[in-house]
Write a structure and sequence with these properties.
8-stranded mixed barrel; Alpha-Beta Plaits; 26 helices; 5-stranded mixed beta sheet; 20 strands; TIM Barrel
Length: about 675
């Protein structure tokens, strides 16, 4: 056996140790070879025709070595081993050493090995035969012959594994020597082991009749076929037949290999680099299949495969997982930003039109990135997180997304939080879910004209849960319907309670895309308004432009029903969504809310101030009320007054508070003097 991974050029940083080992093996082999050469003439003078026939077959056999393959490695197996081992059994060590050395020289010339590599290969076999001869010197019989073959096999693998470990394992990958020794042991037993076991059969055939020697070609041919089929089956098992790229199984093995390497490096106290799993899903590929046929689609996949292979680094594994999904395993990364840079390079390559029968096809891709060990420490977790990131990229309309836990709607922590939320919503009398209310102040009069209802969740173990996290947990699940029902019930009931205390306030509450799609919120509001005798104009629903664009037809139908009910609609986060002018012109809106990100920057950023002023002027021209949120200082308040904004809310006026505290706050509240100049 001769490992194919023993490259002709060792790494510069290990050259001294590597060549030192090579030289030591060659030097020890010379101590065996010199006495063998001195004893060779006597052997050759009495050598029969069978010896010469086997010697010729050994040299000719190595003119075409066997290439074997396993999951982790590939290796070259020399057919001369069976002939040389048979010569060792019949005519002793000197003849076996010389024949094997000539055969190795033939193989080295065929495979264009450097002189030092050819010398090492010859030396390793010399030491193998010397060890086997030492065992045979203890006596005779089949058990001793088998023991000699076993010793030959072990010595050979120890010598080669040490060379490979010095060449690769101790430097780039951090493999342990034992890992190198065992990674292809099974295949070596089937290939080199089979050749060694043919040796005694060939030796017995040579003693019986010289004509039996060529018959060993039949089992030798079987070994060659076995090696060839092994390579072919391994290749087919790990290859996608359409593109020729590695397949999902190859990705699994590569990720498992990288994880094992990192674990061994960590155990050895070495500095580890990260590796990334990139999941690529082609956009609009189904349209190509539907419009041009699957034959064109298959050719397009082949072109995508070529582009990916051309754009990744030399050590990266590019694979096709199936359909229009591809993956890249990228080792040796410093951090996640380097993985994102690679993903953006790939996205750029995919974004260029692909000429197909004179027609340029635009097939871009969405890429999800998961990095080991931050985003997972096994294939299943990394692939799932890369899949989450890929769908996040599609959702955002971006080409690349790095996995973020908050985007994963199915991680264990989020599922646990969702279960706790459902339990709280379904528990009668539970006080964990509450509503806080932030006053909205008229900039004309300084009077409080309304409130915004804000959701709060006091978790029994985690404490106050961030409202944004609360919505992210619920909005893609059936729990969102329970949460909306709870919010509507509590807000309408609170408005009715304030009415009994002499307070007439308009309450604004936020609704999700899910609420607008199914339309149930209209019926629920109608029931609660009737039950609590609350006028519809005292309830206002805030929707975002993103929610509006998710399914405009269904959302518009719900909005029309709400308008007929008498419930007003506010367009929230105005200026951050899509096609705002079109929405303002076509939708039955009562007000727009300027996004807090612009309002917060008004006092320090001239661009933000200009955006707010333009938004106010546009909304006023269309007859809409303008509400600014995020007012936190007097300067911003005065700027909004000057701009002609109608209503404002923020910590400058009051923080959100429970409904029962609002009456007491209103009793203490003193309106600010009007400063409007328009």
């Amino acid at each position: 056996m001769e490992a194919s991974t023993l490259r002709n050029r060792p790494p510069p940083e290990r050259a001294t140790v590597f060549f030192g080992y090579m030289s030591g093996v060659v030097a020890v082999s010379l101590l065996v070879t010199v006495p063998a050469l001195l004893a060779l003439p006597a052997t050759l003078r009495t050598a029969p025709l069978a010896f010469w026939l086997m010697a010729v077959l050994a040299v000719l056999g190595d003119a075409r070595p066997f290439l074997t393959s396993s999951r982790s490695d590939s290796a070259v197996v020399l057919p001369s081993v069976c002939f040389s081992f048979a010569i060792l059994l019949d005519w002793g060590l000197p003849a076996a050493v010389v024949v094997q050395s000539v055969a190795v020289a033939m193989a080295a010339r065929r495979m264009r090995h450097t002189p030092w590599r050819a010398a090492f290969n010859g030396a390793q076999y010399v030491l193998c035969y010397a060890a086997a001869a030492a065992v045979l010197s203890l006596g005779s019989g089949l058990p001793l012959v088998l023991a000699a073959a076993a010793v030959w096999f072990v010595v050979n693998n120890v010598l080669v594994s040490t060379a490979v470990w010095l060449r690769f394992g101790a430097t780039r990958d951090g493999w342990s020597w034992w890992r190198v020794f065992t990674r292809s042991l099974r295949l070596e037993v089937l290939s080199t082991g089979a050749l060694l076991l043919l040796g005694p059969i060939l030796a017995a055939a040579a003693q019986a009749h010289v004509a039996l020697v060529p018959l060993v070609s039949l089992p030798l041919f079987a070994v060659e076929r076995m090696a060839h089929l092994s390579v072919e089956q391994e290749r087919q098992a790990l290859r996608d037949p359409l593109t020729g790229l590695p397949n999902r199984k190859a990705v699994v093995e590569q990720v498992e290999h990288e994880v094992a390497v990192h674990a061994e490096r960590a155990a050895a106290g070495r500095v580890n680099r990260r590796f990334a799993l990139l999941l690529i899903d082609l956009d609009r590929f189904k349209h190509v299949n539907d419009a041009l046929g699957h034959a064109v689609g298959d050719r397009l996949l082949g072109e995508v495969a070529r582009r990916l292979h051309a754009w990744v680094r030399a050590d990266d594994l590019v694979a096709r997982l199936g359909g229009d999904e591809f993956a890249v395993v990228a080792p040796g990364l410093v951090d996640a930003s380097e993985a994102k840079d690679l993903a953006y390079c790939i996205a750029d390559a995919l974004s260029r039109p692909v000429p197909m029968d004179g027609l340029p096809l635009d097939v871009a891709g969405s890429i999800g990135v998961a990095v080991y060990p931050e985003h997972g420490q096994d294939y299943v977790t990394l692939m799932r997180h890369a899949d989450v990131a890929m769908y996040e990229a599609k959702h955002r309309g971006d080409s690349v997304a790095l996995y973020q836990p908050e985007s994963d709607h199915n991680n264990p922590e989020r599922l646990g939080l969702l279960a706790d939320l459902r339990k709280s919503l379904e528990s009668p009398g539970s006080a964990e879910i509450t509503m806080y209310y932030q006053p909205q102040v008229s900039l004309d009069t300084g009077a409080v004209v309304g409130v915004e209802a804000l959701l709060r969740w006091q978790h029994p173990r985690r404490g106050m849960v961030n409202p944004e996290e609360l919505i992210r947990v619920a909005e893609h699940t059936a729990v969102m319907r329970l949460l909306t029902r709870r919010v509507v019930d509590d807000v309408v009931a609170q408005v009715a309670k304030w009415a009994t205390e002499g307070l007439t306030l308009r309450a604004a509450l936020n609704v999700s895309v899910r609420d607008l799609h199914n339309g149930d919120i209209v019926d629920q509001l109608a029931e609660r308004l009737t039950e609590h005798q609350v006028p519809p104009e005292q309830i206002l629903l805030e929707i975002t432009e993103g929610a509006l664009m998710a399914d405009p037809r269904r959302v518009l139908a719900t909005i029309v029903r709400l308008e007929r009910l008498g419930v007003a609609i506010s367009l929230d986060d105005f200026g951050t969504g899509y096609s705002s002018l079109q929405h303002l012109r076509r939708l039955p809106l009562a007000e727009v809310k300027v996004d807090r990100s612009f309002v917060l920057g008004m006092s320090s950023d001239a661009d933000d101030a200009a955006i707010v002023r333009s938004t106010v002027e546009l909304a006023r021209a269309l007859g809409l009320r303008v509400v600014a949120e995020g007012v936190e200082d007097e300067r911003t308040w005065r700027q909004l007054c000057d701009a002609g904004c109608h209503v404002a809310q923020g910590w400058f006026f009051a923080r959100p508070m429970p409904g029962d505290e609002l009456a007491a706050w209103l009793a203490r509240y003193r309106p600010l003097p009007a400063t409007r100049r328009r």
